[in-house]
Amino acid sequence: MKAVILAAGSGTRIERVTRGKPKCLLEFGGRTILDYQMDALWAAGIAEIAIVIGYNGHCIVQHVQAAHSRRLDKVHFLFNPEFARTNNIYSLWLARDWVESSSFICLNADVLCHPEILPPAVQSRAPVTMLVDPEWRDETMKVVIREGCVVHMSKAITRAEYSAPYLGITAFSRQITPGLFGEIEALVRQGRVDEFFNAAVEALIRRGVRVAYTTTAGLPWAEIDDENDLRFAQTCVYPVLSEATVTTGSFAKGYAG
């Protein structure tokens, strides 16, 4: 299985903190969000990682070259030249030739999460598996689940309607990959480049594709869009990541570049 990390955005809502760096280079305990993501992916058995870069992407390249030098042959950089006017659907579309017909897991680059959240999604045999958390969060994408499947996703889903927030992490089987990129390409050709790639997943749902889910099982995570999210990550997510690293040793020692 491969992984695609979508890291092209500029993160305007938190630029007072990032000061020109991509959000994925925000640090927690001397390690960046991107470091935590990459180490968790290697630990989950991912073979190769592609990072779609855009805004100040050279900063990401330089960081990965320095921090993950031992695995550089397994890391690929894809550039989104239209990052200023497109959303993650376009960044994922740019990864289509690299993914080819492989199974892959796709992550938004601003998600800081406990490494044990990823393996259940990586190991899922469903065509599509979304990672969700049953606990309500205001600003995130929400999903509606019926009969064990995700049937709808939107940021506009109300608290009365929602089943779970979505983490911004989705796994796709090799069987569904061609269909996924077919739906993405159709949307891109319609000019819908400013949408989330979830629009393509919803198109698959309408075609009868089963979209499964795995949960966080109470493990911490944060999608960092603004300074409130950053404070939450600093106080509620990073301390648990730090404790897990000290306790097991495997997350940092076994998989750091």
Q: Would you summarize the structure shown here?
A:
The protein has 257 residues and is α/β, with parallel strands linked by helices.
What do these coordinates show?
By secondary structure, this protein is α/β, with parallel strands linked by helices. The chain has one domain: Spore Coat Polysaccharide Biosynthesis Protein SpsA, Chain A (Alpha-Beta Complex), CATH 3.90.550. It has ten helices and 13 strands. Strands 1, 4, 5, 6, 8, 9, 10, 11 and 12 form a nine-stranded mixed beta sheet that branches. A two-stranded antiparallel ribbon has the order 2-3. Strands 7-13 form a two-stranded antiparallel ribbon. Strand 4 (48-53), helix 3 (57-67) and strand 5 form a beta-alpha-beta unit. Helix 7 (177-189) crosses helix 8.
Would you state the CATH class? Alpha Beta
Integer count of domains: 1
Order of helices and strands: EHEEHEHEHHEEHEEEEHHEEHH
Q: Ends: how far apart?
A: 19 Å
Q: Name the average pLDDT.
A: 93
The number of distinct helices, counting runs of at least 4 residues, comes to 10
- Described by the principal axes of the CA atoms, the overall outline is globular
What is the C-alpha radius of gyration, as a whole number of Å? 17 Å
Structural class computed from helices and strand pairing: alpha/beta
Largest sheet: 9 strands, mixed
Q: From the 3D coordinates, which CATH architecture would you assign?
A: Alpha-Beta Complex
Superfamily (CATH H level) name: Spore Coat Polysaccharide Biosynthesis Protein SpsA, Chain A
CATH fold descriptor: Spore Coat Polysaccharide Biosynthesis Protein SpsA, Chain A
